[in-house]
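Researcher: Let's try something more involved. This one mixes different molecule types, so please make sure each is placed in the same coordinate frame as the others.
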Amino acid sequence: MAGKIITVASGKGGVGKTTTSANLSLGLALLGRRVICIDADIGLRNLDMMLGLENRIVYDLVNVVEGRCELRKALVRDKHYPNLQLLPAAQTRDKTAITEDDMVRLAREAATLADYVIIDSPAGIEHGFRYATKPAELVLIVTNPEVASVRDADRVIGLLEANGQIETRLIINRLKPDLVRRNEMLDPDDVYDLLAIDIIGIIPEDSAILGASNRGRPVVLDERSEAGEAFRLITRRLEGEDIPLVTPKGPSLFKRLFGTR
Amino acid sequence: MSQDAPLTLKGTPQGLLLHPRTNDWDALLRALEHSLRDAATFFKGGRVIVELGGRPLPEPALIALRTVLENYDIALWAVLGGDEETQRYARSHGIRTRLPGEAAPEAAGHAPEEPQAAALFIQRTLRSGQKINFPGHVTVLGDVNPGAEIVAGGHIIVWGKVLGIVHAGALGDEGATVCALDLNPSQLRIAGYISRAPDSKRRKPHPEMAYIQQEKIIAIPWNSKG
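Model: All components are placed in one shared frame. Result:
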């Protein structure tokens, strides 16, 4: 049976698409699933760094599309987590190097080799976004709880709906519970009110993410990190577990006391 | 639109229906230019049906009318009614004098019933970047999100929240209204009037209807006792 193709998209840049792709890919691999993650951000490749695989890249996505090498050969396997393989973006080319059909063929081939294919979309709503979302059965939309990124997420959802891709889930990233409490940040209910698509996870702002990305060890590996826990919950929800959504309340008198929505 | 306006414009499924209300063609063309300027992009690429009734349209006025329309990328598609001479030179300019499917030419002096403006029903939420242009009325079962836009020739009724831009009566109908379960648009326009929702942080959503009263757009809350 072919694996499930999931694209991580946002519209706005800098909201945490690549961080999300890296953590979900690794998180699903930790659950014992075979995962291929594809960095579709040709020309601005980052996913390899976040996964700590940069220095092992030989071939890339464009090489595969152009028929210079086979998909299997281009995949970079994680030394510590062999369930996880990365198809890196080309760094020296740009997004015109591939078409939507190329991406569909590539993702479907990858799906024959894995349980999950996770595609990290480039920012924007242009060609890169279109080819990255075209093959997806499910699109995870990453947004931050602030008006600009929510507006862009809305635009992206509208474009996907217009294309007939209606299987979308929302990930709210970088939530700061204390700012929400002081009414300085949109709370997840506000975001849901506007976007009206199901939320699959809420990731609190966590300083551990920065260090984790720089070291190439995604935060999902960090047992003590709240953000890591939030990513682990998303992977279990993707696996079909019914886990109620909780809004991170942040450290309080009762540290890590979680309330339900 | 007030009673003494030199013309009325109305959206129909077949095109924009122009009804002259005067024989002063200069005044009519000026008024037309004014309406078109306000909504140039809305009309762009459209076509016009002139319903003369018994009014004759002199050839120079016909040509002037066509030029004005073409400046806004609108075709003069058909001229109905007028006298026999009007019909003859309209045809010689390649303009229809009958609508497709119409059996016989109208007897001069007899105005047919105005076609009713159609309504458009949309059963989804309009999201940022999505725009609806429609010459008749528009009904939405869903929200109009920030960054979305509706431009309608007639009324706009939204069973949901309006947070984006809505323009009712875009063809100049000052009797058009905007009704919504929660009316909090980034901009609300009716005919040539523009207003914004009042700034208030935490507001309780309630149904409202907006319309023009004494040269201003006002919004009144709906209540069951009304």
